[in-house]
């Protein structure tokens, strides 16, 4: 590769920070580390040090937690259960609103996220699964897989059902818009509080650091634990073709996503905590939203699947019969 090609590749990668569809027809299969692509991710983590400049306040911590949980719900309920698996239905307005909220989590666009996740289910824990800890190790499955070109392009062929909506394609292409919008809203809100509620001891920059930067870093690492830990730590209630696990701690951390073995057994269910004792906060909120008419037609867990899970589990070990024999 000559100097001109290197320069062209560098420029294209910078453009992709803003327009993720730039050179979208380019063959992107390399799993080598792409340092230009990862610069924003590194800067986001370094920006957490801004807390030493802005300080902290109760208002900032509340905004941080609210931003974390709201955006996490948009990821678990909509990016995952709705866009990836069509586990329930909603109208076009709410579809867009929660796609926008999920996009604010800075985990790229809804079409990219869902298409990549569909590929994960098709090839789970095989050589074609880009973030399998079984095949590629913990660190690669946690933070390595998105640093390469092979994970970058939106696989539109896998997400044709939602790619027909131009507003979703726009969000997916310009996936920097929603995070930037959140930053602007947080800064404006913080400045208004500084002007009209000075006793809260906060300001725009402080809310950006806590409500976006710190919250987004925590949100990212919580979400990807399902990639890195959800296939190596926990119990297997169901016999599946992969190493997906159920983990109560991860379920609490991720609003119910930690019941990952359940999910891999019947992915199209709106509920991942199949049994009453498996806490699934995302499911609970979706149920309330269905009473309000925001969502509807939530896919249940079939009785045969529930019965299968009860038979497979060993009440003494908490593992499946297959694991006990191993």
Distance between the termini: 50 Å
Number of E strands: 2
Order of SSEs: HHHHEHHHHHHHHHHHEHH
How much of the sequence lies in strands comes to under 5%
Number of domains: 2
The shape, in one word, is globular
What is this structure's SSE topology?
Elements: H1 3-15, H2 35-46, H3 51-54, H4 58-84, E1 89-90, H5 92-103, H6 110-122, H7 133-136, H8 138-144, H9 160-163, H10 166-173, H11 177-196, H12 204-228, H13 248-253, H14 260-265, H15 281-291, E2 295-296, H16 303-312, H17 321-325
Antiparallel strand pairs: 1-2
Helix pairs in contact: 4-5, 4-6, 4-12, 5-10, 8-12, 11-12
Question: What would you note in describing this structure?
Answer:
With 326 residues, the chain is mainly α. It has two domains: 32-76 and 88-228, no CATH class; 235-326, no CATH class. It is built from 17 helices and two strands. The protein has helices at 3-15, 35-46, 51-54, 58-84, 92-103, 110-122, 133-136, 138-144, 160-163, 166-173, 177-196, 204-228, 248-253, 260-265, 281-291, 303-312, 321-325; strands at residues 89-90, 295-296. It has a two-stranded antiparallel sheet with strand order 1-2. Helix 4 (58-84) crosses helix 5 (92-103). It is globular. Mean pLDDT is 92; it is low at 1-7 and 320-326.
